[in-house]
Design goal:
single chain, about 675 residues, Maltoporin, Chain A, 5-stranded mixed beta sheet
Length: about 675
């Protein structure tokens, strides 16, 4: 946080005209330039919010955001792969074991802007660099509030760091034992009544073999990657208690998976403008635009020839919000409106094993959500009550699919009827300070998610299975409740326990039709209930942080998918845990040892093709060398555990093996 003192002057006459005029110096008026949004509402703790501070964010073994978020009980990616060795379109996130089909059921915001890809719903993790962040806040469970239409399973809010946190210059350079490199640099000067931040990162490497040794063929290659991202922010005080924030982001990410020529890419550009007022009437006004594209080449697992070239998937997201807050006595009232439009198109070409063209497909559409929300928090002594409601006008429009054969003959030419409607959702909760250090909380909520363009219109192939799109998908809807206790056991020890029960209706899943065909369909429901624990103990230079999520999730199915009734949803573990032992004898000396365990989960909807449990151990160390320069060492998967990330009838993909990094860090 930065401050700048402004002195005011006033001239006044003393006594008679014979008296000389004098100047009186007014008290300095501080201007605080933070670069952040509005502070948390008073009732935020009612919803079991977890906050990760910069210390935790910048000490992961991989240096990647998905690795940081894995320390939060209940957080889950669609697959276990990280953002170097997975297909970008599989990087959906969810919370509380609600299952998924690679689209995100949780909303991720960067400085208030939704970051999910407009077409696919995946998160561009390679563009979200941990060292650029000051704080991460995770709220599990659906609910009202800004951009609540995408927060079906919860919200992950990323807050960028300002100049005071970053310093004028910071950066790091690392290399691992395979010759892969990670380079980043940030410049953050104070400018006028604020600051600017310019940051860049470049990661590249040959990668590792995701295919087990016994399944490799001459066409098998390492999971090579080459990605960069560049970010710029300008934060200025434009009036007392009024702050203007402008942000730009550009990224490009290229990967190769399993076979030579199986290349994918994702790239994007973002622009946003935000006005934050911190007076008696608090205001958060935001506008943004996003451009994205995705490409993917599918290589046959039998002929090792190109079979599908998803050569162009341009998409656009535009939107914004206006939120107003006002404290009225013991109450805080929030009112607002937000809007998001996503549109995109798919162009893909099919090929025969001979290399000859086999036709093309074109598909796309546009979705919009316009939301109105209101929330009220009331403090009544040790009791805090909160409640909110949200109404969304949604549309699914302009959907189409064209399928052209190899001779140019039109095989399919469909324009889908527009759909629209209203969705009303709510949340309510309370906290009670039972004793000093003990807070009880309870909450209930509902939420909804619109099927995205990928689910509606884009089929895809992961050999030997083809997954069909479904333009008739209905909106997902969640209702749930939770309760918990936050206990500050001693000044050096805390414990949080949460029990929850969530039911997701119309859950979109990849449902098996036959041995080689699946289709995205709405299941009647997924029920997930369980317990989440988080705790921390500190003793001198030592600290121990841990989290545990135990979840019983099952499909409630009927009709065409009745055989799935009682099955666990795809890609859903019953247990996930994390523990980090830290040692920090001095401000710039840090050591962290992180142990993680993820239980067994299933590849698909049939409770077969199991992904076996995986336990990993990671190391992070930083030792100062000279002033702000330090030596950094990181080790991913120290015990070289085999992490199964995909299992298709015994055809296996593996996650990151033992990887040791060493390098230098300046000023982070």
């Amino acid at each position: 946080m930065m401050s700048r003192d402004l002195a005011g002057t006033a001239a006044f006459a003393l006594g008679t005209a014979a008296c000389a005029p004098a100047l009186a110096q007014a008290d300095p008026v501080p201007i605080i330039v933070t670069g952040a949004g509005l502070p948390d509402s008073p009732a935020t703790p009612a919803y079991g919010t977890v906050t990760l501070e910069r210390e935790e964010i910048t000490r992961s073994a991989s240096g990647r955001l998905e690795d940081v978020l894995a320390n939060v009980a209940g957080f889950q990616q669609f697959r276990r792969s990280d953002s170097r060795s997975s297909n970008p379109s599989a990087q959906g996130i969810t919370l509380r074991a609600l299952g998924g089909n690679a689209s995100s059921r949780a909303q991720l915001l960067l400085d208030g802007v939704p970051m999910a890809d407009p077409f696919f719903g995946y998160i561009p993790f390679s563009a979200l660099v941990p060292e650029r962040l000051a704080r991460v806040q995770v709220t599990r469970g659906g609910g009202a509030g800004p951009f609540g239409a995408g927060a079906l399973a919860g919200t992950v809010e990323l807050e960028s760091a300002g100049a005071e946190t970053l310093g004028l210059f910071s950066g790091e350079a690392l290399i691992d034992q395979r010759g892969e490199t990670a380079l980043s640099a940030t410049l953050a000067p104070e400018i006028g009544d604020g600051f600017a931040v310019v940051s860049g990162r470049w990661d590249r490497g040959q990668g590792f073999f995701t295919t087990p040794a016994g399944q490799r063929v001459p066409a098998t290659v390492r999971a090579g990657y080459d990605s960069w991202s560049a970010s710029g922010r300008l934060v200025q005080q434009v009036a007392p208690e009024l702050e203007l924030q402008a942000r730009g982001l550009a990224f490009d990410d290229r990967r190769t998976l399993r076979f030579r020529g199986a290349d994918s890419s994702s790239n994007g550009q973002d622009l946003s403008l935000r006005l934050v007022g911190r007076g008696a009437w608090q205001v958060d006004a935001l506008a943004y635009v996003q451009w994205r594209n995705f490409t993917n080449r599918v290589i046959s697992a039998t002929s090792y020839a190109l079979t599908l070239d998803q050569r162009d998937t341009p998409s656009t997201g535009i939107g914004g919000k206006v939120e107003v807050r006002r404290a009225i006595g013991s109450q805080t009232v929030r009112l607002g409106v937000d809007y998001r439009r996503t549109e995109g198109d798919l162009v893909e070409d099919r090929y025969l094993a001979s290399g000859a063209g086999n036709g093309s497909r074109f598909a796309g559409g546009a979705n919009t959500v316009l939301g109105l929300f209101a929330e009220d928090d009331a403090q009544l002594g040790p009791l805090m009550l909160t409640g909110g409601i949200r109404a969304d006008r949604w549309t699914i429009r302009e959907g189409y699919q064209r399928n052209v054969g190899p001779t140019g003959m039109v095989l399919l030419n469909e324009d889908y009827a527009d759909r629209r409607g209203w969705a009303v959702n709510w949340r309510a909760g309370a906290t009670y300070d039972a004793t000093p250090g003990v807070q009880l909380r309870i909450a209930g909520y509902s939420g909804f998610r619109l099927p995205n363009l990928n689910e509606l219109y884009r089929p895809f192939v992961v050999f030997p299975s083809t997954t069909l799109a479904n333009p008739q998908l209905r909106n997902e809807r969640l209702t749930g409740m939770e309760g918990g206790v936050d206990w500050q056991v001693t000044p050096a020890a805390r414990l949080a326990v949460t029990v929850f029960d969530n039911r997701l209706e119309n859950a979109i899943a990849n449902v098996t039709l036959d041995a080689t065909t699946r289709q995205r369909q709405n299941l009647p429901a997924i029920r997930a209930y369980g317990v989440e624990l988080a705790g921390e103990v500190t003793h001198g230079a030592w600290s121990l942080q841990g989290s545990l999520a135990l979840t019983d999730a099952e499909v409630e199915a009927g009709g065409q998918a009745a055989e799935l009734d009682g099955f666990r949803p795809a890609q859903t573990p019953a247990i996930a845990s994390s523990a980090t032992l830290g040692w920090q004898p001095a401000e710039a000396t840090r050591l962290a040892l992180t142990l993680r365990h993820v239980g067994r989960q299933f590849e698909g909807d049939q409770e077969d093709d199991a992904l076996m449990p995986a336990t990993t151990l990671d190391l992070f160390g930083e030792v100062p060398l000279h002033r702000r320069l330090s030596l950094v060492a990181r080790v991913e998967n120290l015990l070289d555990e085999s992490i199964v990330t995909r299992n298709s009838s015994g055809s296996i993909d593996l996650g990151a093996p033992f990887t040791a990094w060493i390098g230098f860090r300046y000023g982070l």
